[in-house]
Amino acid sequence: MNRSVCFHCIPLYATCALLLAALVCAAGCSTIGSRSTSLEDLNRMDSALKEQPNPQVDMAQVNEASEYFEEEDNSFSAMTAEKFGKKFKLACLTLVHQEPNEPIAMAAFEEGVELFDHGQFEAAAKKLGYAAFRWPDSALQEDALFLRGEAYFFANRYAKAQRAYEKLLKKYDSTRYMDRVSPRLFAIAQYWEKLDQINHYGPITPNFTDKTRPFIGTFGNSIKAYRTIALHDPNGLWAEHAVMAAGNANYIRGEYFDAADFYDDLIKNYPQSKHLLPACELNLSAKLLMYQGPKYDGKALEDAEDLTNRLLSQFGPQLADRRQALLETQSKITEAKAERDLEIAAFYETKRCYGAARYYYLLVMQDYPQTQSAIEAKKNYARIENFRAEPKDYFAWLKVVFPEKN
After folding, report:
1. For residues 99 and 93, is the Cβ–Cβ distance under 8 A?
2. Could you read off the pLDDT of 355-395 as tens digits, one per residue?
3. How far apart are CA 379 and CA 336, in angstroms?
4. Mean pLDDT of the chain
């Protein structure tokens, strides 16, 4: 039955397509005609201005008219993919009687507000969404999108509320409702983060029962909400709280690389934040936990050294009893850096590159004289001090291919 219905619909679709093509072509042709006539008028006015030394024509009006005709160039030759897409979309909406209409949008908005006031939040959200759809790019749409998010929020449909708020921010990046959207997103993120800590949801485990959670990725959507606040409201009251909360959430889960990224962001972009000291301390801890040993990348170790120096110099009086622990951490970082250079020296020694090995052994002794690695480097240096690298025979394979004859 469904297949036969589709086949019968083919002539209808073809008729609609032909009708749309005719409408577009007619609009293009009429635009060409009207444009050419208007340009002739402008040319005539321009020549008149050149002939008269003191013209009585208002040049501002002439320039305004020429700009108007340039902006309204909808001829077929000037048709771009974006313009054609907009016209085609408008034509399709007109065919189904869903084109932009302010009175219809206003009526739907008022009905949605009334439902919202009576506590029928989900029904209100649908009406408000329809109102935003019927009058796009307007103050009414901005109001409707915000109230739609609020309706879903109070209906405890937090995933839908998050998407509604994100749609508002994407459409109106500097919306006047930003100071109300940010705390809503922060509350949603906090709720999902705590739920995930209690229940340990899998990242791709589907949710079929709890309407307050997203379908999948409870923790991931929590971090996404934090990011949305920092991205769209970087100078707002909630941005630094969102960045710090996202870093802490990842730190608790053992995602130290992601946690360090958020802490780095806060330290760099919010130097006056009240979270600066704990962010530096937790970032130092995350960097040290990221470091995997002397055979791996040492960037985390260098960052940890910079953070330690910053904490000791900038927050000295505030550290209290933690200062001694930081000094011990500083010594451990120095020892770890010495171990890295010692490992490099040992690598060159195994390759019989004794000159490079001696260089790194000397480097450890000079730069880290108080470390255990310096004692080891001194012993190894003395052992290979007189070693010379044996010249490598790069053509030994020729002797195998062409053995010498006796």
Report:
1. yes
2. 899 999 999 999 999 999 999 999 999 998 888 766 566 67
3. 19
4. 83
Residue 63's domain comprises 2-95
For a pLDDT cut of 90, what percent of the chain falls above it? 63
Q: Which helix (H) or strand (E) holds 381?
A: helix 372-384
Residue 49: inside a domain, yes or no?
Answer: yes
How far, in Å, CA of 75 to CA of 402, rounded?
79
With CA atoms as reference, report the closest residue to 290 among 316, 269, 264. 264
Q: Encode pLDDT of 255-269 as tens digits.
A: 999 999 999 999 999
Q: Which residue has the higher pLDDT, 252 or 55?
A: 252
> What pTM did the predictor assign?
0.73
Which residues contact residue 9 at a Cβ distance below 8 angstroms, ignoring those fewer than 6 apart?
Answer: none
If you average pLDDT over residues 167-193, what whole number do you get? 96
Contacts of 98-105 with CB under 8 Å at 24 or more apart are 98/133, 98/134, 100/134, 100/135, 100/136, 101/134, 101/135, 102/134, 102/135, 102/138, 102/140, 104/134, 104/135, 105/130, 105/131, 105/132, 105/133, 105/134, 105/135, 105/140, 105/141, 105/144
Nearest to 345 by CA among 315, 373, 312, 371: 373
Helix H or strand E segment including 47:
helix 2-51
Looking at the domain assignment, is residue 78 inside a domain? yes
Residue among 89, 104, 185, 186 at smallest CA distance from 141? 104
Give the residue from 155, 187, 202 where a domain finishes.
155
Contact 286, 277 (CB under 8 A): no
